[in-house]
Structure formats: C-alpha cells, structure tokens
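does this look right to u?? magnesium ion version
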Amino acid sequence: MAVSWDRFQAVFFDLDGVLTDTARIHAVCWKQLFDDYLESRAESRGEAFVPFDLERDYATYVDGKPRIDGTRDFLASRGIHLPEGRVGDPPREESIHGLSIRKDALFLRVLRSEGIEAYPGSKALVARVREQGLRTAVVSSSHNCAEVLEAAGLAGDFEARVDGVVIDEMGLKGKPAPDSFLEAAQRLGVAPERGVVVEDALSGVAAGRAGGFGLVIGVDRTGNAQALREQGADVVVGDLAELLA
Ligand SMILES: [Mg+2]
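got this back:
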C-alpha cells in the first residue's frame, strides 16, 4: 500500500503496539491486575467472577488511554466505582490510583526482565520517512515511554516526545482527546493537516481524527480493523512494513 509521503511534513507515531510489541505485554498485565482484583472482590461478596477479556475489554476500555483512565473506565463498565485516591497511593490501596500503580509495577517487571524489541517494519518505516525529509515524533500515554524507547533502540529516532509525563506536567487530556497529538504537532511546528498519525488503539485513532490530522493510519495486529475504521482510520495495515512498498 502506497502513501504519498511528500504530501506531509511529519509523522506522529504511537508507541505501544505501533513501534514496540508492548501493547501485548500491557494487555496481559491489565488482565492479571483486574482478574486478581475482580476475583477477590467476587469472593468476598459471594458473586460470580467474570474475568477481564483480553481482546474485547482491553480494546474497548483500556488500550491507548492514560493508565488512570483505563482503570476507571474498565471498572465503571463492571459497575465498580472506587475512590480516585491520589498519586503516590500505595499499591495496596483500593482506589483508582492504587490499582493503577499495581499495573505499572507488573509492566515494569516484565519490561526489565524480558526487554523490548521494536517491530522491524516500524523501525524501517521510521528510517524511510526520515530519509524523505519528514519530521518524526512519538505520542504515547505511557509514563514509561522514554525507558521503552531506550530499551528498543529507538531513542534517537524522534525529534519530539509527548508522553504520559508531559501530559501530566502540562495538564493535557489523554487520548481519545487530541491534545497530545496537537502538542506534538506544535512542538514540530507542523500544521495537523500536514501530519500523519499512526495508531493501533481505538482511542488513539479517534484522537488523530479529532485533531484534524491529514492522514490517520490504523495498525491492526489483533483483528480490530473494522473498529479502527469506525473510529476514523483512513487506512488500516497489519504491519508498518506494508507501507514501505
Ligand atoms: Mg498503542
């Protein structure tokens, strides 16, 4: 599939699931977190335990969003409304922040024990668009973005990074709001309509669409192509290598 890259000035890449295989790790860690929580909650209330669905619940409520929003939105889908708690809540705390920090600890344990690799097709596409003179930025809800980029050998490939840390510092709205992509466009001095967004999450594709970007490319590694199109993806590919042709 051919994209006319010369129509554009910059490409804004999501991280987890687009550049690195970390969306799968995130999904597994979310499942572990929520299943532990839901199972003990069901047991203490004498209710049936309905586990987190790795595909449907992850794609619908969690993927691409800031961690805290993922925790809140999934629990709300089960009719569970915990107190927000605060940044720095201990993992044991039964609050949105407490559960979220548990999820982060699970992810960091995997990241540091198993390492992370960039998708070869993604690394090749980043190199290709840079050769053609386009600017590149990474736009991620993750607070671990810098560490993941470093571990994947991608740290030098992006001129701008708008991640979970920046989102918190600037008080931006997370995906599906377009704020993080628009901030990256501003940092590169590129108008959104001259920019391409590359996203694997429903929330991320929706953010690119809402930001008025010139092209929104959906990456479907899990059979979500139709839903990605419904959220506003102009094209959907299975791997970024398909865009090298
Ligand atoms: Mg993603």
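The two ends are 6 Å apart (CA to CA). idk if thats expected tbh
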